[in-house]
Amino acid sequence: MKKILRYILLFVFFAFVVIQFIKRPEKINEPVTDNDIIGLLNVDKEIAAMLKASCYDCHSNQPRYPWYANVAPLNWWIGDHIEHGRDELNFSLWGTFTARRRDHKLEEMVEMVEKREMPLPNYLPMHKEAKLSDEQIEKLRKWANAERANIAAETETEN
Ligand code: HEC
Predict the structure, then answer these.
(1) Which residues form the Haem-binding domain (predicted)?
(2) For 120-140, what is each residue's pLDDT tens digit?
């Protein structure tokens, strides 16, 4: 029995070493542009800090990578979050969204945060600074609703 266990551990160890050589997902680090939501909407400092601490690692072109993002299989998992997160919502590209899309994304943001589905719960144990308090969620909600009102007012004048 002991022998089998030793073989299993040895196998796991070699598999771990071998997967380190599999192609790694490319790390994303693009310069901040005028399309970034924070600059574009002149987002209040507190909200900006919240978005950066809690959302930008998966929803922007400037994710911060922890050291273990260099270790397979974690790097695939992290790369996947960033890819899918940015597909759904990329705050770095806010300026390229239509008014309708912005409005919808603001609505979804509040919904996801209030339901505590975002930031992704499995991200929080390693990112304590990303956890939002009830008070922070309330501020985010107020901010998002004010932005939605701005969008409604803008589209009103366009028609
Ligand atoms: C660890 C990565 C990660 C973090 C941090 C994160 N998200 Fe996400 N987010 C995702 C992924 C992956 C998806 C797409 C898959 C899904 O819906 O679960 C997503 C989807 C979304 C969606 C689209 C939901 C839908 O169903 O259309 C919204 C809105 C969103 N996130 C908002 C936020 C906000 C706001 C924050 C910060 C408070 C945040 N996310 C933080 C990974 C993340």
Answers:
(1) 13-148
(2) 999 999 999 999 999 999 999
Query: In terms of residue numbers, what domain contains 6?
Result: 2-158
Q: Which is the closest atom of ligand 1 to the Cα of 127?
A: 5
Q: Which parts of 28-151 are beta strand (E)?
A: none
Residue 53 CB less than 6 A away from ligand 1: no
Q: Apex CA 72: angle with CA 66 and CA 78, to 5°?
A: 50
Rounded Cα–Cα distance for residues 97 and 103 (Å): 10
Compute the radius of gyration of the chain from its Cα atoms: 20
Q: Report residue 47 as tokens.
A: 């909200």
Q: How many domains does the chain have?
A: 1
